[in-house]
Design a protein that fits this description.
alpha+beta; Jelly Rolls; Alpha-Beta Plaits; five-stranded mixed sheet; four-stranded antiparallel sheet; 13 strands; 21% strand
């Protein structure tokens, strides 16, 4: 199907950026040299990784742009007056996405040689193409930034405990080799006292509130170089890289204990923690140091809770 007065009128009504500022007489000549194609819904317009020499201007209907064939969630939609395929047409490159009709659509098909000839005839069309490609590049950059941001968010979520915001065991597993090699390392095992009674008496929502409050308090009390890991349940591990003496590590534990004791969570009784501290000895394995911190923690709990024990 080719152009004519009716097609010219329809194109002018679309106010397409491609033909913005083009003299109608010249536009009539161009439309007569183009093909008007009608495609059914779900018809493929462009296939990813394929050479393309055609630009498609949507006259009616709508196109969907996806990274995979048949993706449910489109990256973009192309409506009446908008173009698709102009970048690969002009660059003689391969397409980077799939484009299909969402519904029955009418497309003006412009061959590469025609598009280049029009750009030579009209500086305005050449400018329009530059603006379209610049906008396409800007959107690609925004999409790339969004994808990078999303990837960073996903990585952060994968390494963090969703409830408390502390690091999780997956983070610990990833950093275990580096932690094993660190010569001066203090480990503080922190356990919330009587946590089961909080859950049983006040409900799990109150228990979750206590976990969040304790984790937030601990995080705010640590240095940027320290790490807080939720090991599971009500148990946390504080990893300190610069505690040079057992007294300093025990002092940190005492400060953390006192800070948590000042917490007021809803109408619950005061929240307290028991803490076991272990400073690495020369040549000691990570597992042995962790076991000493755990043993010290249980001494603190057996000794009456709400206290710090040095292992």
């Amino acid at each position: 199907m080719t152009g004519g007065p009716e097609l010219l009128e329809r194109v002018l009504q679309l106010q397409s950026p491609l033909f913005s500022g083009i003299d109608p007489t010249l536009l009539t000549e161009w439309l007569d040299a183009s093909e008007l194609r009608c495609l059914a819904g779900e018809a493929t317009v462009l296939s990813a990784d394929q050479a393309n020499s055609q630009t498609f201007l949507v006259i009616a209907g709508r196109l969907l742009v996806t990274l995979q064939q048949g993706d449910a969630a489109p990256l973009a939609t192309i409506g009446p007056g908008e173009c698709v395929g102009e970048v690969s047409t002009l660059s003689l490159g391969e397409t980077t996405a799939w484009v299909r009709c969402e519904q029955t659509s009418e497309l003006l098909v412009i061959e590469r040689q025609e598009l280049l000839a029009w750009a030579q005839q009209s500086h305005q069309l050449a400018l329009n193409l530059l603006q379209l490609m610049g906008e396409r590049l800007r959107r690609s950059n925004l999409h790339a930034r969004g994808a990078q941001s999303l990837n960073q968010q996903l990585q952060t979520r994968a390494l963090s405990d969703a409830l408390t915001g502390a690091l999780n065991r997956h983070w610990l597993d990833q950093h275990l080799e580096a932690l094993r090699a660190y010569p001066e390392l203090a480990l503080l095992m922190v356990d919330i006292d009587h946590f089961k009674a909080i859950n049983d008496t006040h409900g799990h929502s109150c228990g979750d509130a206590v976990l969040r409050a304790v984790a937030t308090t601990l995080l705010h009390s640590l240095r940027p170089s320290d790490a807080l890991v939720r090991l599971g349940g009500e148990e946390f591990l504080v990893i300190c890289q610069r505690e040079a003496s057992p007294a300093a590590a025990e002092g940190l534990g005492e400060r953390l204990r006192q800070t948590v004791q000042q917490l007021q969570v809803d109408d619950l009784p005061p929240v307290t923690v028991s803490i076991g501290v272990a400073l690495r000895t020369p040549g000691e394995a990570w597992e042995a140091q962790l076991e000493r911190a755990d043993t010290a923690l249980y001494r603190a709990k057996r000794g009456g809770r709400n206290r710090v024990e040095l292992g």
